[in-house]
Amino acid sequence: MPEHERHEPDPYWTEDLPLGEGQFYRHSYPLRLALHQSSERYYHRQELFPLQEANGTRQYFHAKPYILLPDVTIQVRLFEQPREGVIGDTEAVLHEGARREYVGNAQAWFYSGRDKALVLWECILEQRHRLTNPVEDENLQTIWNGFEQTILSRSKGVKRLYTTSEDIYARPAWKRFLEQHGYQQTAPSVFEKGIAAVYR
After folding, report:
1. Percentage of the chain modeled with pLDDT above 70
2. Backbone dihedral angles phi then psi of residue 70, each to the nearest 5 degrees
3. Which terminus of the chain is more exposed, N or C, with fewer CB under 10 A?
4. What global pTM score does this model have?
């Protein structure tokens, strides 16, 4: 089932940002990003790259791209006896604002000590919205670019970006997708780019 939010936004999300336009359910919708940012300690972790500091503080980013859908309630008056298979009449269709539908998930870490490294760990669409080939998926392109720029702008002094393989896609297709975004493969599951490639 689609993940919806009908009421007040969850305070877990510290920012709400525009991403661009996306195509969902055969319609164009504004894409937005619910973003959480917090500091956390890490201890002797094995990362995608060798850490200069085995212990320290990193910034954790968690984001969910979403679209707003009309929140519609249909009121039905039931017949005392069904009529030719019909159980009632529609009395009213109420439009009660909009509700969020989360369409993907993204996570990243920024190591702000000597490493100054940003790790984009995950950025994917929900299965129901995902194309088989990420290179052809314009929604994924929009979300990836938006999330990457969002976390870069909040990661002071970042020198290098890292990301990893994504097993929901065929590896050659995912490699092509990352190369389109300036990453080069440096190990079997590791892709890297320098900060100069971000702004080229």
Report:
1. 78
2. -60, 135
3. N
4. 0.82
Domain-by-domain residue ranges, the chain?
3-67+103-198
Which of 18, 24, 4, 17 minimizes the C-alpha distance to 137?
A: 24
d(CA 107, CA 97): 29
Confidence of residue 8 (pLDDT cuts 50, 70, 90): low
Would you state the torsion angle of the CA atoms of residues 46, 51, 55, 61, taken in this order, to the nearest 10 degrees?
A: -80
Angle in degrees, CA 17, 20, 21, rounded to 5: 135
| Token pair in block for residue 108 | 């990243």
- Which of 116, 197, 121, 193 lies closest to 158 in space, CA to CA? 116
Spatial CA neighbour of 161 closest among 176, 141, 147? 147
**Residue written as token pair 């909009």:** 98
Which amino acid appears at position 91 of this protein?
A: E
